[in-house]
Every structure is written in structure tokens, then in C-alpha cells.
Amino acid sequence: MILQSNVIPQSSKIPNQPESSKLLISSKQNNWQGILLQRLYYSAAESKFSLPAIPEELLIIHLDYPCHIERSLKGKYDRGKIVPGDITVVPSGEVSQWHIQGNPDLLYIYLAPSLMEKVATEVVEVDPQRIELVDRFTLCDPFIRQVGLLLLGELESGGVAGRLYSESLAYSLTVHLVREYSTMTLEVNKYRGGLSKYRLRQAIEYINEHLDRDLKLTRIAAVVGMSQYHFSRLFKQSMGISPYQYVIHQRVELAKKLLKQQNISITEIAFQCGFSHQSHLTKIFHQLTGTTPKQYKNRCC
Q1: C-alpha torsion angle, residues 178, 158, 276, 6 (rounded to 10)
Q2: Where on the phi/psi map is residue 219: left (φ > 0), alpha (ψ -120 to 50), or beta?
Q3: Which of helix, strand or coil describes residue 33?
Q4: What is the edge-to-edge ordering of all strands in the sheet holding 46-51?
Q5: Cα 98 to Cα 18, 60, 68, 140, distances in angstroms
């Protein structure tokens, strides 16, 4: 694995992107740390291009439209029919040549060296330089596909759930890749029993004091002195829900209290509770309570 950069440059794009491909959406503007998503549609009947070596690990999820692909990587030649749901893994630092026949709809997921390094040191506790992902031309992995679609859904929604959600998904995806598709046999250390009362109180107090901010899982975990991987799992063991779910519930509870005040608008309440805008508050509030903020406010006032 090549360790060159801490985050994926915001100018990142698919190298030598063929003219036949159209960029449908990108997470470039969302500033997600350690991960970049790009969705491309190949409009021409045939595309030939080369991907130079890059420091990021690359996953390609085939979203729609079957196609035939030929690929050359590390002196190995692969070819075959690719169908929706298939996944390709391109390890960092490798040059590859591609020949696509068809019109696939593809989701490119770039994982930064910093994210791989973080998982290596925090989760499996090995030297990051020793971790190398295996090349896979076609792969069926429901977990990767599900996380990819969740990230794409978050991107298409405008990132309303916030970075806590997207970066938690990216971290879980990287843990899965390191554990399942590394050239090494790795064991993920397991912690059981939940957080101690002191650490749980620390985490809850920090969350409740910063509900109006764009909370990051790395920061919450740092407050209690743990890696985000083990903090997330121990928090869920203690509380029965993930940190992200807890944050959302607490934001809605705070919104309920503020909605009982007559001198504050719903728009202002949304910002004070950490929602990106009023419609985001309305959507989440309705999901958890079965009513809208306006209806709730009218009943209370």
C-alpha cells in the first residue's frame, strides 16, 4: 500500500477519463475525509483507456447495464461479462488498461492512504506498509455493494445526514476490505462489554454539547481515547444504537424542546439542532415521530 497523502485531493478525478464517459455525480464538493465517490455512465458502444498508478485503493461497483470488459493489470489479462452488482478491486500503485464494450453505469470509490493506514493501526494493529489489497476482476460482495449504495444515496440527497454518517460508512467499508481482501491473514481485535460508565458519560456529554455542529466520529472517539472502530461497536453495545443514530435521536429531542418556544422559527431550530436545513429536520423529525415540526409546534403552542 502506498502512503503518500493524508486525504484524497479535492481535484481528484478518474485519470485519463475517456470521452465516452459522463460524470453524473461526485462527492468532491462534500469534503468527505478519506473517500471520494464518482458515478460515471459510459455512453459509447466501446471505450478503451488506461488508468495510471494512483495512491488510492479503487473499488468499482457496477450499478446498471451489463457489459463486456477486458482488463490488463500486473501482466494479468482478464475478460468477461460484468453484470449489475459485480465489484472490481484495483489496488493502489498499479497501472491498468481497460476495454469496455457496452454502456455500464459505474460507481468509482477511491479510498485514501490515510484511511487505510488508520484501519491498519487501529483495527488490526499491523504496520500499514504490510497491508496490500488483492486484485479482483469480478467480485460478489453484498456488504461492499450495500455500503456503496448507501454512500451514493447520501451523496444524491445532498449529504443531508452529515459527515458523521458518510465517514462512518467509509471507515466500515475500509475495515471490511482490509479484513477480507488483504494479502495477509488478519484478525480484527474484538472488544465486548460495552463502554465503561465514565467513557459513555464522556461521549454522551460531548455529543449533547455539540449537537449544533457537524459532528465527526473521529472526534467523539478521541474524546474517550479510543479508535472510532472500537468506540462505535462498544457504544452500540452500551446504548443499543449506533453513535450516528444516537446523535439523530438527540437532535430530534432538542428540536422538540425548542419547538415549544413561540419566539423561534423552525428554520432556526434546524440549524441549532445540527440539521443542514429545515427540510432535513422535517424529514428526520417525521421519520422518528410520525409528525412534522410544524404540526408538533402547533399542537404545543
Answers
A1: 40
A2: alpha
A3: coil
A4: 46-51, 96-102, 67-73, 76-82
A5: 10, 13, 11, 20
The pLDDT assigned to 258 comes to 92
Where does the pLDDT of residue 230 fall: very low under 50, low under 70, confident under 90, or very high at 90 and above? confident
The identity of residue 114, as a single letter, is S
Whether 82 and 69 have beta carbons less than 8 Å apart is answered as: yes
Rg (CA), the chain: 21
First to last CA, the chain: 59
SS (H, E, C) 244-262: HHHHHHHHHHHHHHHHCCC
The DSSP symbol for 184 reads S
The amino acid at residue 69 is I
Convert the pLDDT of each residue in 142-151 to its tens digit: 999 999 999 9
CB 88 within 8 A of CB 138: yes
> Smallest Cα–Cα separation from 244: which of 207, 198, 292?
207
The C-alpha atoms of residue 230 and residue 141 are separated, in whole angstroms, by 23
Query: What secondary structure does DSSP assign to 86-121, as a single string?
Result: -EEEE-TT--EEEEEEE--EEEEEEE-HHHHHHHII
pTM: 0.80
Length of the chain: 301
Distance CA 266, CA 300 (A): 14
Residues 207, 209: Cα–Cα separation, whole Å: 5
In angstroms, the CA 97 to CA 106 distance is 16
Half-sphere exposure of 133 (CA within 13 A, CB side): 29
